[in-house]
Specification:
With about 260 residues, the chain is of the alpha/beta class. The protein has 2 domains: about 110 residues, Tetrapyrrole methylase, N-terminal domain (Cobalt-precorrin-4 Transmethylase, domain 1), CATH 3.40.1010.10; about 120 residues, 2-Layer Sandwich (Methyltransferase, Cobalt-precorrin-4 Transmethylase, Domain 2), CATH 3.30.950.10. Helix content is about 35%, strand content about 20%. The chain contains 10 helices and 10 strands. The strands form 2 sheets. A 5-stranded parallel beta sheet has the order 3-2-4-1-5, sandwiched between helices. It has a 5-stranded mixed beta sheet with strand order 6-7-10-8-9. The longest helix is centred in the first third of the chain and has 17 residues. It starts with 5 loop residues before the first strand and ends with a helix. The model has no long low-confidence stretch (mean pLDDT about 95).
Length: about 260
């Protein structure tokens, strides 16, 4: 049986003034309860339209496992839906990309018989392709969170574009704090050396959060990553480092069909 509460999750993009959609603004204005996890500028704009907006950033604590923080945020959203409210939850960028809380909240409220949906937003990855002039369709792309790359037996393809997200937190298995650790970053470099030379050119990328800002695209070599400057949202971009070989066997099979 369908319950009365409802959840809509929207993305405010990276630069709210430029990226937020009319649909997202409509959902923000019409909600009974509004939760926001975004940068300070976006929150200030949203709170100017909706002074009752609840900021989820306050849930963070440097000494608390982020996974516990995410469970707390999810519970706050779900409890409001259970109370019969039309809830809108606003998240930075695209709400479904590298964001655990939106997916967890939607799954939970649907399991309990409530309506839930997600509206897309402009993600950091979308900004990256535009800012750096990269087309993932040219050579393919692998996109993975940096700590996951370290913790699991993933295989990278050096003939394709590779994006490593949240690289500043690489190797932070405890999920506590947001500061980069040079020793953990060296471990990341060591693992990447399975596929790349130490002098491989790479880019540290950060999308501009304000219209008056420029995006960051700092070129360096792979070996210099441990001493580089990071923010928690810095992305490591590894351009294709090798040429891809034609697969003559499968090409011959396809040509035989003509």
């Amino acid at each position: 049986m369908q319950q009365h509460g409802e959840l809509v999750v929207v993305g405010c993009g990276i630069q709210l003034g430029r990226h937020v959609s009319e649909r997202a603004v409509s959902e923000i204005m019409e909600a009974d309860a509004l939760f926001v996890l975004s940068d300070a500028a976006a929150f200030d704009w949203i709170a100017g339209q909706r002074p009752d907006a609840i900021g989820l950033t306050d849930c963070y604590d440097d000494g608390t496992d982020r996974r516990e923080t995410y469970r707390q945020m999810t519970a706050m959203i779900v409890d409001s839906v259970r109370a019969g409210q039309r809830v809108c939850a606003v998240f930075y960028g695209h709400p479904g990309v590298f964001a655990q809380v939106p997916h967890a909240a939607i799954e939970q409220v649907r399991c309990e018989g409530f309506r839930a949906r997600m509206e897309p937003g402009i993600s950091a990855e979308a900004c990256l392709y535009a800012d750096l002039g990269l087309d993932p369709g040219t050579r393919g792309v692998q996109s993975i969170e940096a700590t996951r790359l370290l913790a699991y037996r993933h295989r990278l393809d050096p003939t394709a574009l590779v994006l490593l997200w949240q690289v500043a937190l690489a190797g932070n298995l405890a999920c506590i704090g947001f500061e980069p650790d040079p020793e953990r970053l060296q471990v990341l470099v060591d693992k990447l050396s399975q596929w790349y030379r130490p002098d491989t050119p790479v880019i540290l990328y950060e999308a501009a959060q304000l219209p008056i800002e420029e995006f960051r695209a700092d070129w360096m070599i792979l070996a210099d990553l441990p001493t580089a400057r990071y923010k928690e949202y810095t992305t490591l971009v590894i351009p294709p480092a090798r040429e891809v070989e034609r697969d003559e066997h499968w090409i011959a099979r396809l040509e035989a069909l003509d």
